[in-house]
């Protein structure tokens, strides 16, 4: 993921901003007392993207990937709607408890920009995506960078149309969604009222997307490493924030690790999971990698 890439990440202040004041309100309101479910994964399972991860001789990349991680941020579904049998194959070759978090097709978000033609496309997408069954996690919809608040009515219509049996998270990138407090509050309220998660994106060049406003009891976080030694302390900071949210009642953590250049995402993920297990008393499997997770990797 090259979104938000900068040439000199050492010049970026990666400090996680304070929580939006309404985040604590949302967590308290939606608290049920259930144990916190935690899913951590990468964005892809391709061998060419995940360096130093697959053992020599690995024949089925998804099968091995799903033996190491409990989820995948399924970006492939952004580019096309696959045949029904493909979703069934993905479902059947992954173990019990594994979840896919698929990205909504770009026909909805980018090509047709939520116009009146997208509803048939969304229905077709959901028809095949639902074949993932119990392995279907939250679907996420990422809007184009230039999709701004002037399209508010389209967002409202789509949110109201969306079938509530499918968990949904939405990512808005146009800065005007967050620069104007009135616009931001209207957006957050719409998502909150419709039980739609507000995606948080942690990337170097777009710190405005770290608005730290949860709209449901789900933290859907897309973390983009900068291929720099700062990637590790940034993950440490996230563990502290997630632990704080857990104490407030957070019950769903969905954390996906990217890099500007997908060199060592499994290493970052393994480090994050190991620290998360220790801090939050989780019991996630720590992925095996051919190199030890180390903060000095990019020195």
UniProtKB/TrEMBL annotation:
Pfam families per record: DUF72
InterPro entries, per database record: DUF72, UPF0759_sf
Signal sequence interval, chain numbering: none
Name under which the protein is recorded: DUF72 domain-containing protein
């Amino acid at each position: 993921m090259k979104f938000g890439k900068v040439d000199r990440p050492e010049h970026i202040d990666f400090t996680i901003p304070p929580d939006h004041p309404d985040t604590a309100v949302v967590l308290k309101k939606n608290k049920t007392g259930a144990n916190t479910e935690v899913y951590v994964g990468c964005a892809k399972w391709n061998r060419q993207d995940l360096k130093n991860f697959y053992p020599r001789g690995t024949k089925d990349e998804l099968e091995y990937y799903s033996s190491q991680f409990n989820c995948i941020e399924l970006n492939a579904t952004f580019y096309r709607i696959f045949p029904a049998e493909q979703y069934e194959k993905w479902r059947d070759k992954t173990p019990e408890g594994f979840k896919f978090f698929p990205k909504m097709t770009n026909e909805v978000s980018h090509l047709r920009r939520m116009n009146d033609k997208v509803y048939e496309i969304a229905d077709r997408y959901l028809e095949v995506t639902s074949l993932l069954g119990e392995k279907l996690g939250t679907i996420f919809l990422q809007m184009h960078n230039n999709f701004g608040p002037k399209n508010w009515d389209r967002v409202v219509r789509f949110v109201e149309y969306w079938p509530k049996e499918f968990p949904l998270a939405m990512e808005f990138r146009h800065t005007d969604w967050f620069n104007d407090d009135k616009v931001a509050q209207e957006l957050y309220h719409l998502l909150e009222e419709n039980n739609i998660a507000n995606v948080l994106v942690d990337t170097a060049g777009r710190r405005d997307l770290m608005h730290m406003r949860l709209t449901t009891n789900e933290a859907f976080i897309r973390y983009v490493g900068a291929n720099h030694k700062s990637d590790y302390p940034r993950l440490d900071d996230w563990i502290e924030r997630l632990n704080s949210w857990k104490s407030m009642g957070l019950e769903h953590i969905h954390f996906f690790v990217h890099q500007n250049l997908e060199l060592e995402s499994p290493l970052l993920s393994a480090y994050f999971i190991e620290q998360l297990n220790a801090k939050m008393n989780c019991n996630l499997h720590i992925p095996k990698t051919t190199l030890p997770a180390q903060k000095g990797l990019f020195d």
